[in-house]
Amino acid sequence: MMCRAWCVCLGLILVFGLPLVGFGQAVDKAVTDCIQAGNKALQTGHYKDAEKDYKQALTYLRSTPNDPLRGMALNGLGLLAMTRKQYTDAETYYKTALDFLKKVRGEHHPDVAFTLDNLADLQYTLGKPEKAEPLYMQALLILQKAEGNDAPDQLDTVNALAQIYYSENKFADAEPMLVSAVKIIEKTNGADSPDLAWKLVMLGVAYQAQNKNAQLEPVLKRALPIAEKSWGADSQDLVWIVGTLAGLEQAEKNYPEATVHLTRMLDLQRKAPTPDQAGIAATLSQLGSLNLLQGKLSEAETVLKQADEIQEKTPGHDTAPTAATLNLLGKIAYRQQKYVDAEVKFLAVLPIRQKVLGVAHADTGATLSDLSATEYKLNKFAESEQYAKAALDIQQKTIGNDNLDTAVTLTTLGSLYVMLERYADALPLLKQALTVRDKELGKEDPQILEVLEPYVNALFKTDHPLEAVEMKNRLADLKSKLKGPAPK
Hints:
Blueprint: H1 2-16, H2 23-43, H3 47-60, H4 69-83, H5 87-105, H6 110-125, H7 129-147, H8 155-167, H9 171-189, H10 194-209, H11 213-231, H12 238-251, H13 255-270, H14 277-293, H15 297-312, H16 320-335, H17 339-356, H18 362-377, H19 381-398, H20 404-419, H21 423-441, H22 448-461, H23 465-483
């Protein structure tokens, strides 16, 4: 090795008294060669050679005790001890190197940051992230001060900090580390790097955990084509990306785009080596919900029946996902005016949700509300009132009075009371329902008609003539606008 040659050279200088001009450079060159030889031996698994090289470097440095290269040789011995799982020795070498480098280099030199990183790696390896984190952070601050933010040699440090914060669910702390990692990888590896795809996905998870949907969507849209290219178009690692994008598009009421992503997700799930039938059923159910929101009842019914068939075959199928599928099938039957079928579905959903979610859960309240509306259509007024009151009791405690789902129940109960000529009981319910729908949907939404018609009736019957006429005129205007201009 080069290190051995320099050993011979130095021996000749000392024995024969050769000129000492450039002797300092000769020592540094010998030390550097020994450290590099040690690094190479360490990387190739020749640990005994690595140890000899690092220790030989320290021997040369006895004549120059303040040479910073001593810190590098000590770090090398620390890395070697780490590799051999000699953690006590590693800690000793690192701490000795750290104290030495602080003395000769100063507290804020990059060599100090390098040693802090190594010491942090040791603590993390020992299962002590709480001790590793402040060391990594000290190292990062030194490097940022020396080089500015997002320099290439900061990548390992920000990755390590991101991993610690990520594993502890400290996503707000992980976020800036992941943002920095993304920038560094773009600079060093390019915009199509597989590493970039993973970091973008991790950043997406951090945004999702913080409900930062505005930042989440563009990150995932950026990650998707990179991931497809890097991992393959049928990679199962794409499932989370497209599924999350589907949820974001649905929340923004971009239903066609959401449908595209969900269809892709379903295709990926079906191509898995061992398809997750429960996951497939859940995606089919979500796809059915999307079709229902778009008024595509036939398409919705088809995929929901597929989901129901899978869930029926699953052991212990009385689960929340099964209830969700049955509930959607009930809603389709209701929209198709198949009220008996709807009743059967909702009655099947209710005990599942009461058992799995609890009798006071918001979803249980929603099913009671659906049952109330269905029984009303079947002229089962006593049952309708019973279910509506139970639904309201839950909804007012869980989602509040100003929620659209609560307004639906208020409308059903108010309409029922008008039917039963209990106008005084109906009036406050319908007034509250109208206020909520006006606020949430706008005054010209078609759903306003469901409230206005019984509300006008209740106003006339309870001796509120001025408001009754005003609401009657509003009802006529709205019907006219919704009907559109007469054909020429």
